[in-house]
Amino acid sequence: MNPYKKYKDKSIEGMSQGELLVTLYDESIKDLKRAQLALNDKNYDQFDYQLNYFIRIIRYLNNTLDLSQPIAWDLKKLYTYINYDIGKVKAARERMADEIPKLIGIMQDLRDGFDGASKKVHDERPVEDRSVSV
Questions:
Q1: Taking Cα atoms as reference points, which of 121, 106, 109, 127 lies closest to residue 16?
Q2: Where are the domains of the chain?
Q3: Which of 9, 41, 99, 131 is the most exposed place for a label (fewest CB within 10 A)?
Q4: Residue 24 parent element (H or E)
């Protein structure tokens, strides 16, 4: 196995749910930025490739929502909108290119919000609950 992949897999296994969520948002932002660069270069294969990864992340986030939580319904609506909007961007390419920075902003706001909430929850847990079992 590739040593980098092995390291990456190990680091993911040790992440909390909050850290995993933030990592998904980080990856989605990278995908959008790469898609924007590919579009600027008129590299449509790479543009589609990056947007397909972004769409997979959004679908995963949408499909894993715990709908018993009130905020989940708002997130579901937001993810549905993002999925719809990125579909338009993918079809229209340059004509909808100005939507990509808006989507990056939405994903960045979500990332920052969940990162802050995750840190707050972590900081409020008692020290004895922070131990990691091996």
A1: 121
A2: 19-122
A3: 131
A4: helix 17-40
* pTM of the predicted structure, to 2 decimals: 0.81
Cβ–Cβ under 8 Å, residues 23 and 15: yes
Tens-digit pLDDT string for the chain (134 aa): 676 565 555 566 667 888 899 999 999 999 999 999 999 999 999 999 999 999 999 999 999 999 999 899 999 999 999 999 999 999 999 999 999 999 999 999 999 999 998 787 766 655 455 444 43
Residue 60 CB coordination number (10 Å): 12
C-alpha distance from residue 35 to each of 10, 23, 54, 123, 127 (Å): 28, 18, 9, 36, 42
